[in-house]
Write a structure and sequence with these properties.
Oligomer: heterodimer
Largest sheet of chain B: none
Strand order of the largest sheet of chain A: 8-1-9
Shape of chain A: elongated
Radius of gyration of chain B: 23 Å
CATH superfamily of chain B: Formate dehydrogenase/DMSO reductase domain
Order of helices and strands of chain B: HHHHHHHHHHHHHHHH
Number of strands of chain B: 0
Number of domains of chain A: 2
CATH class of the largest domain in chain A: Alpha Beta
Number of helices of chain B: 16
Radius of gyration of chain A: 27 Å
Distance between the termini of chain B: 16 Å
CATH topology of the largest domain in chain A: Alpha-Beta Plaits
Structural class of chain A: alpha+beta
CATH class of chain B: Mainly Alpha
Number of strands of chain A: 9
Chain lengths: 303, 441
């Protein structure tokens, strides 16, 4: 093959373009990913644990909506409350029972599922964008992109993504906020199934209004805090409780920072190092080469 | 390529095979692939068994999933295949960038005799650890996704790490390729490679900086899961700095073994210069460790975590930092003052243990220290790790005994007539070929 000047320039230009694109790409990481969109009004859910009766209708609805395998213990059994449960690859939402500090006769039921953070740590951690925050609100999982590195599990402050360890072709499993239903304008299956109205689906801003209203109107009934309003920069799914959240299985030490912010400082240093280091090193190299040459001349050039 | 392949007719020796043609190359390769020396040595038998059983375990892992062979749980998604093989192994491969920086950029000639062995070590480490990484990935066939890009996760530290990992492995291959060219007697190819040496090394140092730091940066996203004594926004800097003394200590340890095992491939002059090299590495290591400890103390005091030192995890922290970082620093200083090579070697081992402890602490031990049921590796995880190390040692030995990796005398002059025996001829390093270049031009 003969290389014409024109072709050579084309190739060289393309190579240069790729390098430049690399630089620009790194520069973009300096900011917090905007995929979620500033000003987007996300959908979310307000879960009022004072209303939850532990009927597990949400679990059953979730199981059906996501076509998950039927559990060994039926959804009507209360035996599952004996121990604290985590979500699993086959159960995206689980209800746990906690003793009630205020009223020992009335235990507190708390459902646990993906919190659908405003700036999800899992989505920023994923190197192939298998986790993605959708404009509608849910954080979804693209199974075809996932390489199974499980960095999302390391990064999730709520330990929600679960991995299919016993499959040769495993996926990460978690609540995806019934994305299809939400995109169609319906509410998630669990919210629809709740007989007590303990789960309220809607725009996040409206849900916060509603939550505040409930706290103001019933100060005796509610602990004065909306879990998820500020935690990790805000979550889509938020909670109300009668008792302090610490006592019903919530972590209150997560801070109010968006999780992607934890790495944005480091990532913004990447283009600086990538550009500055070679420049400095080449400079060093020239400097020292010149000096060596001088020395070689002085000592009569041995080599 | 065909012309110019026989630059070195050695008197009284068979002419080197014509590796310029495909047939010649294949014949040469087939001949080189044959084992040399005794096959049934204790080392071969033990590592052979480890590798065979290891491969069987790997087969089970791919047939039945990670859960069949590992102790990984939903609470502990990363075990020793990541924490030790990748996170720790890459730290120890740091010797390659720091040494090529010293020799090629700073032009410290003293360390030239050990550059090739160190770069080879680094290259093999990267190849085998990325291999180990594939074992840990749930869907390894998708590993190319962030590279070919149906979805670039720019905002991910892991994206950065993956790219730098890949590119640096390529850089290491270019850096080691002069030895391969020497082995194949491809003079022309080598001349081309040498022309890009400086640029390659500069790119390599840059990639390593970010790659080593990035491995630490991965853990920035888990502030609520890593014990506060270990979690710090400085983790990337700490990882980068500690990769330097990890690299130094690994060079010292590796040379302890290669000098004993492959002593027939060394010469007197090299041995004499080697003590000076080791003491120099000790000095480098000690100064970097001092800087590292300084940062550690700043982290400790700024985070107001002094009280945590009086907890069980605090004692464990002190074991790592005082016992295996501060103590080796003191011992290095003593060794330098006493000019004791033996003490340098012993201290290098202590330092290496310290680095292993640090990486395992952040990725496994101090990770979710609060869980009731803790992760500990299954015997199969450990076995596979040993198998990976064994495979690497086999390849390392194969390369060492065939390619010119270990040093020739620093004052080696490459006049054709002065090559007195074939062994020396095989052990020629790039200096030789640079004089070929002179004679060719």
């Amino acid at each position: 093959m003969t290389i014409s000047r024109r072709n050579f320039l084309k190739v060289a230009g393309a190579a240069g373009g790729i390098l430049l694109a690399g630089g620009a790409k790194s520069a973009r990481t300096a900011q917090i990913p905007k995929a979620s969109g500033v000003g987007t009004e996300f959908n979310g859910m307000l879960i009022d644990t004072t209303k939850c009766i532990g009927c597990r209708a949400c679990e059953e609805a979730c199981n059906e909506a996501n076509k998950l395998p039927k559990p060994k213990v039926s959804f009507s059994s209360e035996s599952v409350f004996e121990e604290k449960r985590e979500t699993t690859p086959d159960a995206y939402v689980v209800v746990n029972r906690f003793p009630n500090g205020k009223n020992p006769d009335k235990p507190v039921f708390v459902r646990r599922q993906c919190m659908h953070c405003t700036e999800p740590s899992c989505a920023s951690a994923c190197l192939c964008k298998a986790m993605e925050k959708m404009p509608e609100g849910p954080t979804v999982y693209h199974k075809d992109r996932c390489m199974g590195c499980r960095y999302c599990m390391i990064s999730c402050p709520f330990d929600i993504p679960k991995f299919e360890y016993n499959s040769p072709s495993p996926f990460v499993k978690k609540c995806i906020g019934c994305y299809d239903r939400v995109a169609r304008g319906e509410q998630p299956a669990c919210a629809e199934a709740c007989p007590e109205g303990a789960t309220l689906f809607g725009k996040r801003r409206d849900l916060i209004e509603e939550a505040r209203k409930r706290i103001y109107r019933n100060p005796d009934r509610y602990h004065p805090r909306i879990y998820g309003e500020h935690e990790v920069g805000g979550t889509g799914y938020m909670y109300l409780s009668a008792v302090p959240f610490r006592t019903i299985g919530f972590r209150i030490d997560l801070g109010t920072k968006h999780y992607p912010e934890l790495t944005s400082g480091f990532l913004s240093s990447v283009p600086i190092v990538d550009i500055l280091w070679p420049a400095v090193l080449f400079g060093f190299n020239y400097l020292i080469s010149d000096r060596e040459e001088e020395r070689g001349k002085e000592s009569g050039d041995e080599e | 390529m065909k012309s110019n392949v026989k630059p070195m007719p050695i008197p009284g020796k068979p002419v080197a095979p014509d590796t310029g043609t495909l047939r010649g190359f294949l014949r040469f390769l087939a001949q080189e692939l044959k084992p040399r020396g005794k096959v049934l040595t204790p080392f071969n038998v033990v590592t052979g068994i480890i590798i065979v059983v290891g491969i069987a375990i790997i087969a089970v892992r791919f047939a039945r999933g990670l859960g069949a062979v590992t102790n990984l749980t939903q609470a502990y998604p990363w075990g020793i295949w990541i924490g030790f093989d990748v996170v720790t192994g890459v730290a120890f491969a740091g010797g390659a960038y720091i040494l090529t920086f010293a020799v090629h950029i700073l032009k410290v000639k003293k360390y030239e005799p050990i550059v090739r062995a160190t770069v080879l070590n680094g290259f093999l480490a990267y190849v085998f650890y990325s291999g180990a990484l594939l074992l840990d990935l749930g869907r390894p066939w998708n590993v190319v996704n962030p590279i070919i890009g149906n979805a670039f996760g720019y905002g991910s530290v892991l994206f950065l790490v993956a790219w730098h990992f890949l590119l640096y492995t390529l850089v290491l291959f270019v850096e080691i390729s002069p030895a391969i060219a020497d082995w194949l007697k491809w003079v022309k190819a080598k001349r081309i490679i040498q022309r890009v040496t400086t640029a390659t090394i500069i790119v390599g140092v840059t990639l390593s900086t970010l790659h080593q730091a990035g491995l630490g940066g991965l853990f920035l996203t888990a502030p609520s899961k890593i014990h506060p004594l270990w979690y710090s926004s400085n983790i990337p800097v700490l990882f980068f700095i500690s990769s330097m003394f990890a690299g130094f200590s690994m060079i010292i340890i590796e040379s302890m073994f290669t000098h004993r095992i492959f002593s027939d491939r060394l010469d007197e002059a090299h041995r004499a210069s080697h003590n000076k090299i080791l003491l120099g590495l000790a000095k480098g290591s000690a100064s970097v460790m001092a800087a590292y400890l300084f940062l550690k103390v700043i982290d400790l005091t700024h985070g107001h975590q002094l009280g945590l030192l009086r907890t069980p995890m605090g004692y464990w922290y002190l074991v790592e930092v005082a016992g295996f970082t501060l103590l080796p620093l003191v011992l290095y200083v003593v060794a330098i003052r006493e000019q004791s090579v033996r003490l340098v070697q012993g201290t290098a081992i202590l330092t290496a243990i310290g680095v292993i402890l640090n990486r395992l602490n952040i990725s496994v031990i101090a990770f979710k220290w609060y869980e009731a049921v803790r992760y500990y590796p299954s015997w199969m995880e450990i076995w596979v790790t040993l198998a990976v190390i064994s495979m690497e040692l086999w390849v390392f030995r194969w390369v060492i005994t065939r390619m010119p990796i270990l040093g020739a005398p620093p004052d080696f002059t490459a006049e054709e007539g002065t090559l007195s025996n074939l062994d020396d001829a095989e052990v020629v390093r790039w200096k030789v070929s640079s004089s070929w270049k002179v004679s060719a031009s």
